[in-house]
Amino acid sequence: MITRSARAGDAQRLLDFWQVEVMPCDFVETDAELTDMTVAQLAPQLTAMAASPNNLLLLALAGTEIIGYLRIAAGANPATAHVGELGLLVAQAERHIGLGSALMATALDWVSEQSTLKRVQLFVQTRNLPAQKLYQKFGFILEGRLPASYRSVSGDLLETLLMAQLFNTSIS
C-alpha cells in the first residue's frame, strides 16, 4: 500500500471509488454533484488541487486500486482560506489495518510543512467511535457537539462532533 496525492489520471478510479465506497456510506456526507461528475470535469480539478497550497486529496492505493482517500478542502476567501475541512474514508474491506493512520500522518505532515493552513477541522458522528479515536490519536480536540446535524439514510437525526487542530499559529 502506498499513499500519494491524487493526479488527473486517477479521475476514473476515484469516481468508481466514490460510487462503490463513498456514496453508500452512512458515516460521511457526500456531495450530490459527485454522482453526475465526469472524468473530464474531475481531472482538471485534481490537477488544480495538487498545485494548491491549502487543498489536498491523498489516495491510499493497493497496486492501482484506490482503497482509501483523505481530503482537506479550503476555500479561496482570504478570511477563511487558512481553514481546511478534513474528510477521510477507507474502503470497507480495508478498515482497521492502519490505512486511516497512514493517510492522517501524511496529510498532517503536509499541513505542517507545506500548506498555508493554520486550522484543520472535521465533523464526525458520535456513533463513529473508531474515527473519533483516530482523530484524537492525531491531536484533534473536541470543540463542540452538534445535535440533530446529520440525517442518516434511515432518516434518523444524528449528533455530530466538531473536532479541530491548530498548526503553526498563535491566537491573538
Automatic annotation (TrEMBL):
A Pfam family annotated for this UniProt entry: Acetyltransf_1
Keywords: Acyltransferase, Transferase
Domain of life per record: Bacteria
Domain spans labelled N-acetyltransferase: 1-168
InterPro entries given in the database record: Acyl_CoA_acyltransferase, Bact_Acetyltransf, GNAT_dom
Keyword field contains Flavoprotein: no
Keyword Zinc (UniProt): no
EC assignment: 2.3.-.-
Gene3D superfamilies in the record: 3.40.630.30
Transmembrane segments: none
GO molecular function: acyltransferase activity
PANTHER family: AMINOALKYLPHOSPHONATE N-ACETYLTRANSFERASE-RELATED-RELATED
Protein name: GNAT family N-acetyltransferase
